[in-house]
Amino acid sequence: MRSTPLHVAFAVLAMGGWAAFANRDHGAGSMQLAFAIQGTLSGLITLVMKRGLEIGHERLTGQFARLIPPLVSCTLIGALLFLVHTLGGTPEVLRTLAVPWTVSTLYAFVYVASLDRTR
To answer: Which of 40, 44, 58, 108 could form a disulfide with 70 if both were Cys (CB 3.0 to 4.6 A apart)?
Structure first.
């Protein structure tokens, strides 16, 4: 369960699958496009987010270490997802982002809280 490739593959399939489902009313082409965009982004985000949260947490202290890294993470991820899906032509951008952004934001706050307990 600690396998990075497994985590990345899960993110690609789960969040790409959600994106396809969120765009189901727009035909197979839109579903495939949304899957490809979200799957790729989720895989990349999975690779980068954990380490970015760790670095932010290491460099800050107190409340800042608990709040700033996940807030930066959720802001950057939300902006990235919105920008790429908009430029890519995903029909249901906000519906598509709802689950991946929520999951990544919750993960960021929970993961940083766990880092805080081990400090």
So the answer is: 108
